[in-house]
Design goal:
- The protein has 387 residues and is an alpha/beta fold.
- The chain has 2 domains: 138 residues, Beta Barrel (Lyase, Ornithine Decarboxylase, Chain A, domain 1); 224 residues, TIM Barrel.
- The protein has 12 helices and 17 strands.
- Strands 1, 10, 11, 12, 13, 14, 15, 16 and 17 form a 9-stranded mixed β-sheet that branches. An 8-stranded parallel β-barrel has the order 2-3-4-5-6-7-8-9, surrounded by 5 helices.
- Helix 8 links the parallel strand 7 and strand 8.
- Helix 4 runs parallel beside helix 5.
- The longest helix has 15 residues.
- The radius of gyration is 22 Å and the shape is elongated.
- About 1% of the residues have low confidence.
């Protein structure tokens, strides 16, 4: 999409505005299949729950990994069949379990002994189970993303995982083991350690036929080293490999358009924009860095170049899109924030009664309105007034 098209969409739909390139996502799924030809994919819906994206996932033959009843309902509505549904997360409540059984979800990842007791108490169903193992080491990412650290809430240490696997196997529904070391992994250095940890578990449980290694690949990560680390293990044991990509296929496909409302000069320049943490939480939550540029207008001279902070409109110091940026931006200029296809729209909020913006998908070069912008009436649509 060129600059003129972005300006036209911003004028038509207003800002802030989310753009999502479905062609880019389709190509990235193709690259995943090329790197891991033996794998089955369960797209991590939490990365981006766009209806159009989930329809693409369904049509591609991939499945979905869901952690809430809302995500599961979205996946089913998109046409993803039960045999391609995987239920994850540390908190699988009764409504999620009921929906999973109704949908015929093939797999669930057990995060704790109590989770297994709850599933077992529901009575027999078609779901089989993976045991989530906590590998107990920091994969060198942000602390909020280090799901495999020993003190994280996810999974069980190997000894307890083996004990739970024995219970599940005794009921004839053990399918394998699951490890997700963390997110934003730039290299494959953690994966040999994970496989060394899993090997004794697969040696012990002959009926365990699936290894789920989650996702977590950083958007710019080279997949070849990950494949080189994983595929020999899987092939030598005749295992079924499941991966749960979320960020890798979607991050680069998303952009957030925002306008500069004010340029405040001082010791540092502050560009105050109409988008901030309510539309993109990652900079505030993780200190995430997103590429930001001015979308130029042909024939219009740029504003003076300065170095400063790209800020949101809310009364929070954390309400920013970028720090220490060099931009030629002035009031009214359109900015493009990149790599927001993952954990952009999925983390939006109505904080400060902010209105969630429209989303436009791009497919075969053509834009389509995928979600309308909220109006103020939407803010109280679910309120129940006094009798």
């Amino acid at each position: 999409m060129n600059d003129a098209q972005m300006h036209a969409l911003a004028e038509r739909h207003g800002t802030p505005l989310h753009l999502l390139d479905l062609d880019r996502i389709r190509a990235r799924f193709g690259a995943l299949r090329a790197a891991f030809p033996d794998a089955e994919f369960r797209y991590a819906v939490k990365a981006n729950p766009s209806t159009a994206l989930l329809a693409l996932v369904a049509a591609s033959g991939a499945g979905a990994e869901t952690i809430t009843e809302g995500e599961l309902a979205r996946a089913v509505r998109a046409g993803i069949p039960g045999e391609r549904l995987l239920i994850g997360g540390p908190g699988q409540g009764p409504e999620l379990r009921r929906r999973a059984r109704d949908a015929g979800a093939a797999l669930a990842s057990l995060d704790s002994e109590d989770q297994w007791r709850a599933w077992r108490g529901d009575g027999p169903g078609r779901t089989r189970f993976l045991i989530r193992v906590n590998p107990g080491f920091d994969p060198g990412t942000h602390p909020h993303l280090a799901t495999g650290a020993a003190d994280s809430k996810f999974g069980l240490p190997p000894g307890r995982a083996a004990a739970l696997a024995a219970e599940v196997a005794a009921d004839g529904v053990l399918d394998g083991f699951h490890v997700h070391a963390g997110s934003m992994l730039a290299d494959a250095s953690t994966h040999p350690r994970i496989l060394d940890l899993l090997a004794p578990l697969f040696d012990r449980f002959d009926g365990a036929r699936t290894v789920d290694l989650g996702g977590g690949f950083a958007p710019d990560a080279d997949l070849a080293p990950f494949a080189a680390a994983v595929l020999p293990f899987v092939r030598s044991r005749g295992l079924r490999l499941i991966l749960e990509p979320g960020r890798w296929p979607t991050a680069d496909a998303g952009r957030l358009l925002t306008r500069v409302l004010a340029r405040k000069e001082g010791a540092t320049v502050h560009w105050i924009c109409d988008a901030g943490m309510a539309q993109l939480a990652r900079p505030a939550l993780y200190g995430a860095e997103h590429p930001i540029r001015v979308v130029p207008v042909p024939g219009r001279p740029p504003a003076p170049v300065a170095r400063g902070e790209v800020q949101g409109p809310l009364c929070e110091n954390a309400d920013r899109l970028g720090r220490d940026r060099t931009l030629a931006a002035g009031v009214g200029d359109l900015l493009e924030v990149g790599q927001v296809g993952a954990y952009g729209t999925s983390m939006e909020s109505n904080y400060a009664s902010s209105l969630r913006p429209a989303e436009v998908t791009i497919e075969h070069g053509a834009p389509h309105l995928a979600r309308r912008a909220e109006t103020v009436d939407d803010l109280w649509r679910h309120d129940v007034g006094p009798d």
